[in-house]
Amino acid sequence: MPKFEYAPAPESRAIVSIKESYGLFIGGEFTPGVDGRAFKTISPATEEVLAEVTEAGPADVDRAVSAARTAYQDVWSGLSPAARGKYLFRIARIVQERARELAVLESLDNGKPIRESRDVDIPLVAAHFFYHAGWADKLEYAGYGPAPRPLGVAGQVIPWNFPLLMLAWKIAPALACGNTVVLKPAETTPLTALTFAEICQQAGLPPGVVNIVTGAGETGRALVTHPGIDKVAFTGSTEVGKQIARACAPTRKKVTLELGGKAANIVFDDAPIDQAVEGIVNGIFFNQGHVCCAGSRLLVQESVYEQVMASLQRRLATLRLGDPLDKNTDVGAINSAAQLAKIRELSLVGEAEGAQRWSPPCELPVKGFWFPPTVFTGVSQAHRIAREEIFGPVLSVLTFRTPAEAVEKANNTPYGLSAGVWTEKGSLIFWMASRLRAGVVWANTFNKFDPTSPFGGYKESGYGREGGRHGLEAYLDV
Ligand code: NDP
Questions:
Q1: Alpha-carbon distance 184 to 175, whole Å?
Q2: Residue nearest ligand 1's atom 19 by CA
Q3: Taking a C-beta distance cutoff of 8 angstroms, is the pair 173, 131 a contact?
């Protein structure tokens, strides 16, 4: 039992003014869709309708690609790199100025706790624009030749788990390298991307350099298959990533894919256990586990299994689930009814296959989409919950005896996005890191992101890198 109750500490939503309906952002203006179709975006925490958003059809995508092409040819490719950088610096500063508004809007539309949107998502968005603004006039020193050239028009499709941050990961490097973009946000989280369109206007960005087309999977398909784009950047599920790879294979389009993951978070018996438990919690319950690099498979050395589990259960009992706008909330809402159904289904499969399910006592709100922090023990390698991405607040726990066994188990997955290692031995960290088939290996920490550090996967987690010097390659003709 907690020693005291928390008073509610809601962030005011008065700082955001959500419009009743939004058009598409094409050629620097908000415009209606050609066929007049629209869909609603809701708050997953309350199911309240937030706004009506235009569903872009193929003709709209065509208009957006043309606007991006014209802006590329007539304005953006002819600008001096330093001038491009100035626009990016300006965008970064406006993001900082409007940070509180963007954080509240992100939490409303996505369901993530304000603590995370305020302290993680939005600061990282600004950091991405600042970082890439710095690269704009230094590309000849990036290691891609003396005069690296942009690709042209980029078609970018992003998911709902970090809506504005994924937009920043896509748009900042594209613009810094001299490309123009058409971006499609996820159907369930379009509002911060549309506000970003306003920020582009506010920054005086030349019309057509950034275009935002809202819609569902069909809009994304129309964008990535459009013959007028030179580059496809996608973050989302492995299944859709494969479809996109197939569709682009016979074309000259350059493609980067950032797909799913099933990361191992590995705790050795000499690890500082309390710190490791914080890292386990951050690894899988951050953003409700809607994280491609989430530490969804915990591998614990057998000798400390009881100690780690007792400590983890104690810690999970203190997590507060509820109103995403409350500053005391640790676990927010699941992003959509469809995602909740998927988490429920895989959790039932976990039980049916023989794993033991545990959640701390946790009252779920009646309205909205909620799932309690959940831990499965007694999980074997063959279980679906050990192999498939659940993309929710569900941890599967396995054990190991030796470092070699930990490596074997960690790599026994079709994915390879990230991994975590907890030990006080630096030599063991290096030994593990050189054997783990994962794009990122965190040592004694987890889910740490930085614009200077490349991020991306092995195997079915995709190809290409985002962030850092390596990430520039995706947007340069090298
Ligand atoms: P999707 O891969 O379906 O969605 C990602 C983005 O692609 C969205 O903008 C989506 O639009 C769009 N899209 C969907 N179909 C197509 C298509 N054929 N061509 C082009 N674009 C398309 O992921 P979901 O949102 O459906 O999530 C399903 C699962 O994917 C999750 O449970 C999770 O396991 C995984 N996932 C992984 C992510 C990661 O970061 N690696 C992120 C999100 C999901 P729309 O949203 O409008 O459907």
A1: 16
A2: 221
A3: no
Q: Which residues of 259-280 are buried (b: 16+ CB within 10 A; e: fewer)?
A: bbbbbbbbbbbebebeebbbbb
Pocket flag, ligand 1, residue 149 (CB < 6 Å): no
- 248 noted as active-site residue: no
Q: Are β-strands 210-212 and 180-184 bridged in parallel, bridged antiparallel, or unpaired? A: parallel
Segment 306-331 shows an average pLDDT of 97
Q: Identify any residues that bridge with 297 across adjacent strands, giving them in sequence order.
A: 264, 396
pLDDT digits (tens, 9 = 90+) for 231-277: 999 999 999 999 999 999 999 999 999 999 999 999 999 999 999 99
Enter the tokens of residue 389.
């991405």
**pLDDT tens digits along 400-446:** 999 999 999 999 999 999 999 999 999 999 999 999 999 999 999 99
How far is residue 385's CA from residue 382's CA, in Å, rounded to a whole number?
Answer: 9
Structure tokens at 410: 């960690």
CA of 256 to the centre of ligand 1 (A): 15
Distances (CA, A) of 141 to 135, 138, 173, 469, 474: 9, 6, 15, 10, 16
Note the pTM of the prediction, 2 decimals: 0.97
